[in-house]
């Protein structure tokens, strides 16, 4: 096998033991490349695209534009697939997108109860916890409890809606625009938007607020 250029454990010390998940990923990657089923360079390029080039930045720009452009926001809520495609972000698997607007009275939370279907084209790679069994089950059974664990306390009169992603349909939460952002540029607005806010496990903080 050629030189391995991508390290799935890039964020942990080189002298630290790999976690069970990291070991499994590396074992599967080695098996696929050894059998010639996956080209290592192609695999590295694909992972790099979603891990470092996409990340949540595409989704953050979608949210920022929706905050700043009421016409785009309307198109996003009516047909997210087409609106997101306007910005050049298209799912590789042909999945449709739905945008869910958080308001003062409704808070949306996204989960995938069967596996880990996730909008890669706008949010990059899914966080580890999104794929975990506790999140996948508790987000449905006790969404308010899950949100509290993420630091989101909602008044009793706010309705929590839980949405289950599938291979054909994936969701992007449009978080509430925080106060004090009226004069910010699209880039400055996008910088406020976190991945968790677009899943529904966080709210977007106002500029200067503690995260």
Descriptive account of the structure:
This protein has helices spanning 20-34, 40-54, 57-68, 70-78, 80-86, 120-123, 133-141, 143-149, 186-192, 195-199, and strands at 96-101, 106-111, 159-164, 169-174. The protein starts with 19 loop residues before the first helix and ends in a 12-residue tail after the last helix. The chain is globular, with a radius of gyration of 18 Å. The strands form 2 sheets. Strands 1-4 form a two-stranded parallel ribbon. It has a two-stranded parallel sheet with strand order 2-3. The chain is an alpha/beta fold. The chain contains 10 helices and 4 strands, in the order H-H-H-H-H-E-E-H-H-H-E-E-H-H. The chain folds into 2 domains: 20-53; 56-199, Nitrile Hydratase, Chain A. Helix 3 (57-68) crosses helix 4 (70-78), helix 3 crosses helix 9 (186-192) and helix 7 (133-141) packs across helix 8.
Strand order of the largest sheet: 1-4
Low-confidence stretches: 1-15
CATH architecture heading of the largest domain: Alpha-Beta Complex
Would you list the SSEs in sequence order as H and E? Answer: HHHHHEEHHHEEHH
Overall strand count: 4
Q: CATH class of the largest domain, please?
A: Alpha Beta
Overall number of domains: 2
CATH homologous superfamily grouping of the largest domain? Nitrile hydratase alpha /Thiocyanate hydrolase gamma
Let me know the average pLDDT: 83
Fraction of residues in helix: 40-55%
**Main sheet summary:** 2 strands, parallel
Beta-strand residue percentage = 5-15%
Might you state the CATH topology name of the largest domain?
Nitrile Hydratase, Chain A
Structural class: alpha/beta
Total helical elements: 10
Q: End-to-end span in angstroms?
A: 43 Å
Shape: globular
Rg is: 18 Å
